From TrEMBL:
GO cellular component entries: cytosol
One GO biological process term: carbohydrate catabolic process
Key words of the record: Glycosidase, Hydrolase
Molecular function as annotated in GO: beta-glucosidase activity
Name of this chain's protein: Beta-glucosidase
Record-linked InterPro entries: GH, GH_1_N_CS, Glyco_hydro_1, Glyco_hydro_1_AS
Source organism of this protein record: Collinsella intestinalis
UniProt-listed Pfam families: Glyco_hydro_1
Active site: 391 (nucleophile)
Entry similarity comment: Belongs to the glycosyl hydrolase 1 family.
Amino acid sequence: MSESKAFPEGFLWGGATAANQCEGAWNLDGKGPSTADVQKFADPKSLKELMDVHGLCDITDEMIDAALVSQDDAAYPKRLGADFYHRYKEDIAYYAEMGFKVYRMSIAWSRIFPNGDEAEPNEAGLAFYDRVFDECAKYGIEPLVTMSHYEPPLEFCRKYNGWYSRESIEFFCRYVDVITKRYAGKVKYWLTFNEVDSILRHPFMTGGLIESRFAADEFEEVLFQAMHHQFVASALATKICHENIPGSKVGCMLTKLTFYPYTCHPADVLAAQQRERATYCYGDVQVFGEYPAYLTAMYKNKGFDIKMTDEDLRVMKAYPVDFVSFSYYSSGCAAGVHHEEAEVTAGNTVQGIKNPYLPSSDWGWQMDPVGLRISLVDLYDRYRKPLFIVENGLGAHDEVGPDGTIDDQYRIDYLAAHLREAYKAIHEDGVELMGYTTWGPIDLISNSTIQMSKRYGFVYVDADDYGHGTYDRIRKKSFYWYKNVIETNGASLFEE
């Protein structure tokens, strides 16, 4: 073992989950329904269906009405999750056994403010997260808490049109003030919005926007207006957090969508640059505190009239984030000229041209460890702020063997290759990397397809896509591998 190839001292190793995908207990102890609780099991049968991001993630008022009267929770798997609400002590004990230094999780907004607009919070919801944070503290695990992760309160969406309403800023800031005061002694690291750029890809799930309520030719402007409100809210959340928790650190969270030119044709290079900019602009606003010229040019060219005040712009400039976190699973290609031979494939709620040099997962996501190094270098060169990889993982079909074990060597291979590239980014490229949390350390409901069978965890959950099973936990082979990685601070990745 080479000690020289360890990760930096104090590196934050761990795993990441989201309340809407693991907690369950969707209507217990005063929790209100969220956007996640009315998303029906999609069960895509083909790659074409899998790439229908809007169809998988966004729904109409009629679909919501049907969901709210449905008693069939199995048809809405996020209502069940992985039953973390009742099993959090057991799950956190598994994380402690692996040696987690950090656990990224989210607070369900509708567990604290059931409708989003109440004047007073729900004490039972606050008490639940007290218990979770206390359990983490028992093992010395630092929580990294996402304030909003794909679960706006449903009533907030239906009554106010979600983040399109300017009142959304007030409601969110009230929520942030409550949770940062309540957990001031328990949580140091915070993220504002998960994959803040994703509102463009799944407006309902991220922004509480019911697309059918708006004119089709106006909806793109609606999206960017809602995004502006999130930018202002993120800046104010950073301010509130710093005031309520001295020494706290607040980050933004981006979907790192890394695109390569399909060929060296200049039009393909330009197409790749434009696709990258479409994500970078959200980090640019939250890090630099102002709109980049290319985004305001786009608004002008499309005739958008985004309502923003001088005070909005002042707040955004005054309270940028402290660090940049991101998800990275795969890369894709982009083309600006017609390529009849180009095949389109799926990614993290996005699609791109298939790269002929890369293998693909069972769900069509292309596996590209070097792309993680490229992403780290690009982000650090651009922002010069600490980075945090808060999602990286492999969704796969895991099988329990006759002896009760689960051999997921393919997951180990995927994660090990990505971590070696992260090491190179740190030691060869000078990137400042705070930590790494895999998605997700325990099997949970996948996001876009609402499946349990798309498994990511080091810990297997005995449940299927229809909620059948004991929900008992089983350690996979990767559990012991990741435990060793953490014990050696990454040095085991370089053993012969």
